[in-house]
């Protein structure tokens, strides 16, 4: 089987009939208690005049996700260009952290240039380069089996690693007399002259197949010293506000459960990535950093791990309803906004008040 990244349109506005049932006193108390609990996060445009001023003064640096926040896969997000320019003009340092290893660094910089923002390579955290950094830090000398895009694999190759991938050919499945499962038996034994695999890396791969997952599983089971690395762990990747695709998180789960191994997460919200980010940007005062993203587990969870202030944008993978229903405190923001365009209104109000 070859599970492609299937596009699914989100269903909105569907009505549901509710079955009535008797409410006990304890259950009613729980409902009242839950309704009385107000979220601690607020929309940045709902802040008072003094609170807005204090918010803009509370951070020196902005670390932002890209897809669903700065742009959509399917096109631009209105107002982002002007908002980024206003933030930079206000002296804020801008840097970006993406879980998307499908673009090269040059492609990222070109997209920022269209927004009127010049970004250097050191201002972008790319999952493939984070993986290269980690593999070098542990002095990896063996081959790397990679489930990922050619862009991701090319970065590994350019860093000097031997990269294995595939298989890419289809298994024959038209011989009903044969046992199709038996074709995997050769994966379990190392062949003569086959390189030793020291790491299995799993990231976004639009051509991922059961054969690749089986290869990865066997490499992990063959040696306890084989490092298991996950890049992006997203279960859903938004294309825009109405469409999303299946992310690699589910396939990482399959490998973890089938091999009995836990992946080292080098994408958001991984602990190792948090350390890389603190070192790369020389962060000594995390509360003076505003982290912006559109996903609750990956982005807000990462912000919590790093000790940053957190702003959730509703322009990508999280709806307002999902935000208010979420009950994991570590994955909730301090603030939320509709999109980066809300910063334009904040700065316009500040200028009007100063006049």
UniProtKB/TrEMBL annotation:
Domain of life (superkingdom): Eukaryota
Record-level GO cellular component terms: cytoplasm
Alphabetized SUPFAM superfamilies for the sequence: HAD-like (SSF56784)
Pfam assignment, any one: Hydrolase_6
Cofactor note: Divalent metal ions. Mg(2+) is the most effective.
Chain positions recorded as substrate binding sites: 98-100, 268
Upper taxonomic lineage: Eukaryota, Metazoa, Ecdysozoa, Arthropoda, Hexapoda
Name listed for the protein in its UniProt record: Putative phosphoglycolate/pyridoxal phosphate phosphatase family
Molecular function per GO: metal ion binding; phosphatase activity
